[in-house]
Amino acid sequence: MSAIESRPAAAGSPAAAGAAGRAEAAGPRGRRRGRLNRARLSEWAWGYVMIAPLFVGLALFYLWPIVQSAYFSFTEWGAFGGQEWVGFKNYSNFLSDPQLPRATWNTVKYALIILAGIPLSIVFAALLNQVHGKYASLYRILYFLPVVSMPAAVAMVWRWLYNGDYGLINYLLSLVGIHGPHWVSDARYTVWALGVVGIWSSLGYNMIIFAAGLKNIPRQYYEASALDGAGRVRQFFSITLPLLSPSIFFVSVLSVIAGLQMFDLVLMMLGKANPALADSKTIAYLFYEDAFLTNNQGLAAAIAVVLTLVLLALTAIQFRLQKRWVHYG
Fold it and tell me: I need a surface site. Which of 143, 165, 255, 326 has the fewest CB within 10 A?
């Protein structure tokens, strides 16, 4: 280093004044940046403290049971407790169960019936959007009542409606000369009958989703299309359906998940002594039998894991396909 480079700047020189100015400016700016960083860290810390109860509840009541079920699916339980590692034996027993093909077909059929109810929900939501005034809220409440009704109460009412001897449905059919079947004790009709109840139960919830989607469609689109000569049918297929597709996608995902988990209606509407039960079981009902009737916890856990993986795969496929038919904006 040369003498010129090593010599300090004179006190009154321009270089010294510039360095002092930079130090003065950097001091408050550095302290301000430090305070901002500490404030930001404090905000993050308090944010995590506030959401910690949610994460703890999620981990304890959702994530941990999933991990437990996955582990139990590789074990065999004794009559008085205790587990023994058996590997993939439970999965092999489940896949070779003679009831599985019929239960799978019943589950798929029920899910397809629930999906077929989506167009009906769209039509009712469109009609409900045309109702204004003091009766609009009343109609919404009436359609939404099945969603908040207890499944046991729903099953009791529909068992009476479906009764083959004195049910209301068969009585109305007899007025036009039709002899109605035993809807819930004949295996040819049970899944279809349960599917109708599933559509009725989910109609109100789906209508709320579709009604909200319909209200978000700008009225200018309909007015502009009307000036071009488009009728109601053309407007429905060219404007309403494309702009309602995000809501349709959301409802279809929920409907598939609910359809593949169908259990409560089979249990409460058919009953264990029903002759049609053997041909009307679903995969979720097989889980119930192994978990609570035969106490085969390992096999029940394997069924739950398989059903969860199937649901995840179908949901992923739906999200993949939605890019082709769902229009945002």
Answer: 165
| Amino acid (1-letter code) at residue 215 | K
Nearest to 140 by CA among 199, 232, 206: 206
Cα atoms in the 13 Å half-sphere on the side-chain side of 29 = 6
DSSP string, 60-84: IIIIHHHHHHHHHTTEEE-TTS-EE
Residue 85, beta-bridge partner list = 75
Q: Which residues touch 154 (CB under 8 Å, ≥6 apart)?
A: 146, 197, 201
Position 36 scores a pLDDT of: 62
Question: In angstroms, rounded to a whole number, what is the distance separating the alpha carbons of residues 192 and 80?
Answer: 40
**What pLDDT, on the 0 to 100 scale, is given for residue 127?**
83
Q: How far apart are CA 93 and CA 107, in angstroms?
A: 19
Could you tell me which of 42, 49, 200 has the C-alpha nearest to residue 117?
200
Domain range annotation of the chain:
3-72, 89-325
Residue 60 to residue 64: CA distance in whole angstroms: 5
Identify the bridge partners of residue 76 per DSSP, sorted by sequence position.
84
83-85/75-77 β-pairing: antiparallel
Query: Which tens digits make up the pLDDT trace of 187-202?
Result: 899 999 999 999 999 9
> What are 75's strand-pairing partners?
85
Look at residue 17 in the predicted model and tell me its pLDDT.
Answer: 46
Q: Which CATH number is associated with domain 89-325?
A: 1.10.3720.10
CA-to-CA distance for 40 and 168, rounded, in angstroms? 66
Two structure tokens written together for 226: 């009307």
Question: What 3-state DSSP class applies to 85?
Answer: strand
pTM of the model: 0.80
d(C-alpha 120, C-alpha 128), whole Å? 12
List the chain residues with pLDDT less than 70.
Answer: 1-36, 79, 133, 329
